């Protein structure tokens, strides 16, 4: 047999190299495939010229000057804002560390330690509930981000009334994270006291105070940032670019939604058993709202009553609206129509749990629809619909060509564009994993409300939003959600609310700047 | 049965099997290599079954994930080339068996386990990964590269006078 012979024969060479042509065939097929893919890509790229690199959004501003903060309201949202500013209670640090030791996918500890130091100090904490205030004081004293065995700095001063805090001269800027009915009043007073303001959304609780806020901010030349942290979401910058480059064609319909289905999501928060008239300053809580006898339910679940809340329109639609205003420069709509009801949570609340709002923009030839349920979590994305393509925006961004498009007609016919596959997709660098993210957090993250990415690293959008505000305080300029955008946000939300509550169509008079 | 006892047709088809599996491995590796966004993280996080925890740990660790990504891409390419050309056949087969075992264990098609990754067919316990894996085991018993493949030439060169 030939195998036994020790000399290399012709047969050996043929059989030895017999499969080499297969490798050649592979390379040829590979080349053909790559060429075809390249052709498709080129066809798409001719239409979609969106920079695929991450935009560099953060300005470089010197942090040498320390900003001295005060915070009003250290309940749920206030605590998140403190964390985003770099302050967390040592007990929480212990919990994070323990969780990370138990589960390597839990990155909260590491992420918080890696969060940029913004060179701020909190000199005042104001909350009308002693327990919340104590929480805030302890968090703000943990300047070194240590656990409970670590050294703490002195606690900041506790103010029982925000007016005293605003009068203090060791505070440059305040964070307002109170219930909605206080936002406008406090912002106006803070601006008049010359303090820069970061205020949670919505900007105002009533229409008249909306004008006052703008005036106070402008007259006193302070830096005002409205708490729409979505402004920092990278996918939104890409979406804006896609609109600017007219990839969607004529945008005629925009759909945004809220889809929640949990007591927490419906604002039925836990009531603290230790809370009572002894540790809550009820009179101050009521403030500009109509008087009501002390009620723990109203105190902890204030979002359920118009007396303190702005309902779905002010609380959740504003996030959606501001996102679309960022992408599409919508401004205030010409008209609004709303309907809905209290269909699931028959718990005595006055704000609806199901709400639909339609806003008309005749000058832009488009309709903005908001559809919300607090009792179904069927996820419906944010959709910007154009004649040639539509766009789904969340933490990521996908653009699909419409099969009836005029602009892409030829490429659709040639099969170069498939309407079932996105012609553009942007997913922020997602190599990190987090199996720990809670259901509510996941909802927020999916909607881009929680985290965004910078250079592939996960960053809290609220942190970036606060940083943006601080950069403007230090280096000048307008923050990404300034008072003018806040005015548009507030007026649009108020139009929806008025339409729902008065059961009529309401209009915006752009000349007189009035809701009619 | 020894590979030398195979008739011409048998030898041809066993070799074809080796080369085709090589092609599949090579292409899977090349696709990943040329996709800058590819990472095994999504696949790992889609894991189910009793070994789920291990795959999650790999996904959670940046360094382990980097190793998993590297071994996947270059492992697939190396095994693919080796099987096509008929080189280092045994190590390549073992490598392939190891990789496929990991794929199978991370996504076992057992009743009650659900995956996000779409499957192109219907599988119960047995899927194509398992079949490819067993095929590689079969190939271990029928090494063909010393008869058809570069191994034959190398063997000859070493032993030639």
In short:
The complex is a heterodimer of chains A (516) and B (161). Chain A is α/β, with parallel strands linked by helices and 516 residues long. Chain A has helices at 10-16, 20-47, 76-85, 90-102, 108-114, 130-141, 162-167, 180-192, 207-219, 234-244, 282-286, 296-300, 311-328, 409-413, 439-446, 461-475, 483-502, and strands at 67-72, 120-126, 157-159, 173-176, 196-199, 224-226, 251-259, 335-341, 354-361, 366-373, 382-386, 389-393, 397-401, 424-426, 451-454, 457-460, 506-509, 514-515.
Characteristics:
heterodimer, A: 516 residues, Rossmann fold, 3 domains, ten-stranded mixed sheet, six-stranded parallel sheet, 18 strands, globular, B: 161 residues, mainly alpha, 7 helices
Question: What does this protein look like?
Answer:
The complex is a heterodimer of chains A (516) and B (161). Chain A is built from 17 helices and 18 strands. With 516 residues, chain A is an alpha/beta fold. Chain A folds into 3 domains: 46 residues; 161 residues, Rossmann fold (3-Layer(aba) Sandwich); 227 residues, Dihydrodipicolinate Reductase, domain 2. In chain A, the strands form 3 sheets. A 10-stranded mixed beta sheet of chain A has the order 14-13-12-11-7-10-9-8-17-18. In chain A, strands 3-2-1-4-5-6 form a 6-stranded parallel beta sheet, sandwiched between helices. In chain A, strands 15-16 form a two-stranded antiparallel ribbon. Chain B has one domain. Chain B is 66% helix and 0% strand. The model of chain B has no long low-confidence stretch (mean pLDDT 90). Chains A and B meet through helix 1 and helix 2 of A and helix 1, helix 3, helix 4 and helix 7 of B.
């Amino acid at each position: 047999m030939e195998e036994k012979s020790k000399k290399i024969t012709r047969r050996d060479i043929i059989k030895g190299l017999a499969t080499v042509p297969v490798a050649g065939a592979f390379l040829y097929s590979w080349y053909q495939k790559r060429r075809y893919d390249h052709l498709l890509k080129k066809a798409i790229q001719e239409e979609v010229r969106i920079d695929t690199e991450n935009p560099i959004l953060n300005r470089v501003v010197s942090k040498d000057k320390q900003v001295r903060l005060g915070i009003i309201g250290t309940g749920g949202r206030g605590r998140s804002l403190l964390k985003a500013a770099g302050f967390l209670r040592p007990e929480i640090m212990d919990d994070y560390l323990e969780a990370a030791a138990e589960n390597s996918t839990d990155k909260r500890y590491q992420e918080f330690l890696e969060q940029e130091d913004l060179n701020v100090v909190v000199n005042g904490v104001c909350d009308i509930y002693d327990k919340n205030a104590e929480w805030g004081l302890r968090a703000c004293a943990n300047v070194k981000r240590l656990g409970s065995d670590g050294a703490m700095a002195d606690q900041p001063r506790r103010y029982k009334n925000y007016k005293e805090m605003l009068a203090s001269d060791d505070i440059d800027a305040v964070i307002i994270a109170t219930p909605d009915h206080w936002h406008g009043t406090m912002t106006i007073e803070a601006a008049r006291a010359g303090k820069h303001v970061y205020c949670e959304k919505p900007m105002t609780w009533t229409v008249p105070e909306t004008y006052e806020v703008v005036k106070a901010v402008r007259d006193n030349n302070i830096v005002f940032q409205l708490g729409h942290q979505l402004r920092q979401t990278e996918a939104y910058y890409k979406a804006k670019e896609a609109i600017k480059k007219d990839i969607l064609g004529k945008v005629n319909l925009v759909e945004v939604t809220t889809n929640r289905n949990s007591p927490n999501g419906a604002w039925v928060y836990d009531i603290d058993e230790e809370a009572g008239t002894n540790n809550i300053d009820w009179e101050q809580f009521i403030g500009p709202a109509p008087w009501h006898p002390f009620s723990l339910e109203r105190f902890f679940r204030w979002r359920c009553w118009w007396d303190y809340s702005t309902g779905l329109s002010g609380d959740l639609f504003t996030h959606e609206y501001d996102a679309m205003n960022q992408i599409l420069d919508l401004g205030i709509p010409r008209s609004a129509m709303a309907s809905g009801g209290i269909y699931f949570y028959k718990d005595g609340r006055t704000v609806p749990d199901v709400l639909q709002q339609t806003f008309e923009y005749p000058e832009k030839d488009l309709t903005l629809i908001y559809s919300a349920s607090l009792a179904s979590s069927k996820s419906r994305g944010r959709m910007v619909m154009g004649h040639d393509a539509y766009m789904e925006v969340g933490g990521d961004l996908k653009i699909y060509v419409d099969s009836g498009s005029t602009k892409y007609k030829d490429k659709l016919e040639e099969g170069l564009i498939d309407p079932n596959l996105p012609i553009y997709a942007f997913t922020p660098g997602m190599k990190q994993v987090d199996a720990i993210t809670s259901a509510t957090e996941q909802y927020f993250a999916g909607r881009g409300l929680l985290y965004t990415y910078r250079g592939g690293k996960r960053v809290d959008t609220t942190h970036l939003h606060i940083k943006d505000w601080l950069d403007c305080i230090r280096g000048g300029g307008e923050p990404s959600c300034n008072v003018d955008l806040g005015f548009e946000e507030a007026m649009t939300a108020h139009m929806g609310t008025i339409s729902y509550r008065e059961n009529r169509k309401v209009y915006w008079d752009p000349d007189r700047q009035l809701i009619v | 049965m020894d590979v030398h006892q195979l008739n011409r047709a048998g030898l041809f088809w066993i070799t074809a099997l080796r080369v085709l599996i090589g092609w599949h491995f090579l292409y899977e590796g090349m696709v990943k290599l040329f996709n800058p966004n590819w990472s095994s993280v999504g696949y790992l996080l889609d894991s189910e079954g009793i070994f789920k925890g291990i795959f999650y740990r790999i996904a959670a660790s940046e360094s382990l994930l980097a190793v998993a990504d590297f071994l996947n891409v270059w492992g697939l390419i190396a095994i693919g080339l080796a099987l096509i050309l008929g080189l280092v056949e045994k190590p390549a087969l073992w490598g392939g068996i190891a990789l496929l075992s990991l794929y199978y264990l991370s996504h076992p098609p057992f009743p009650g386990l659900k995956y996000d990754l779409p499957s192109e067919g219907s599988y119960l316990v047995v899927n194509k990964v398992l079949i490819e894996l067993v095929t590689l085991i079969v190939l271990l018993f029928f090494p063909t590269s010393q008869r058809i493949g570069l191994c034959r030439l190398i063997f000859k060169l070493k032993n030639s006078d």
